[in-house]
Amino acid sequence: MLSNQEKIRFSRQTMLKNIGEQGQQALKNASVLVIGVGGLGNPASLYLNAAGVGNIYLADGDNIELSNLPRQILFTETDIGQNKADTSAEKLQQLNSATNIEVLDEMLDAELADYYLPLVDLVLDCTDNINSRYLINQKCIEHKKPLIIGAATGFDGQHMFVNPNIADSACYQCLFPAHKKPPENNCQTIGILGPILAIIGGMQALQAIKFLTGHAVATNQLDIFDGLHNSWQQFTLKKQADCPICSG
Q: Quick check: 31 and 52 in contact, CB under 8 A?
């Protein structure tokens, strides 16, 4: 049940007929794991926390560097050298002290994934490493945890939703099979513009809020944003019968 303070705080959300107090209560009861608290994880976790998600787990083993500041908007110059997950948790608690935030200040591996995934309702992949994406995808399929994947480089970004609880839901390896060794492009190799990350991280948060409040989120769909031309494209995906991860 929402307290009087929560009713005031989230009044602009609860007045939405598609959210209401029931949806706000669902957000309060929800648990989300955000893996990677950099360019995508900053805005995504910020909006989830502000929206009233009750339990947020932050996983990142990296420390803040000067070159992060143009796009990782939770951090300031005084935070340089500090762990990203720890620092993000401190900043998020200042925004919403009621949120229960747990920090994992190291990179997620298979063992940690097996421990944390059973604790959450939803996972956000905000990493920029292809091997991490494959691991997160695999573990979410194993634990049947819905997954929202975001990625961005240059002026472009993309996101997709994987739901292992839906029989025909394609997974990340259906899109990028590991054996084909897709090119590993990230902000360190080709650069990135900060607002692109804000758009994709915001879309990850939006999809998460919709899912947690009981609204349909499309699977088998890749959404691609072209920031130079302000355009979106949607591509239909298909679960691959030979996918070693989701079709076994």
A: no
Q: How confident is the model at residue 178, as a pLDDT?
A: 85
Three-class secondary structure of residue 60 per DSSP: coil
Q: Into how many domains does the chain fold?
A: 1
Whether 132 is in a domain gets the answer: yes
Res. 93: pLDDT tops 90: yes
> For residue range 179-224, what is the model confidence (pLDDT) as tens digits?
776 656 666 677 899 999 999 999 999 999 999 999 999 999 999 9
125 in a domain, yes or no? yes
Cβ atoms within 10 Å of 140's Cβ, excluding its own: 27
Q: Supply the CATH number for residue 211's domain.
A: 3.40.50.720
Joined together, the tokens standing for residue 72 give 């990782």
Q: Active-site residues: which are they?
A: 187
Q: What's the half-sphere exposure (Cβ side, CA atoms, 13 Å) at 198?
A: 9
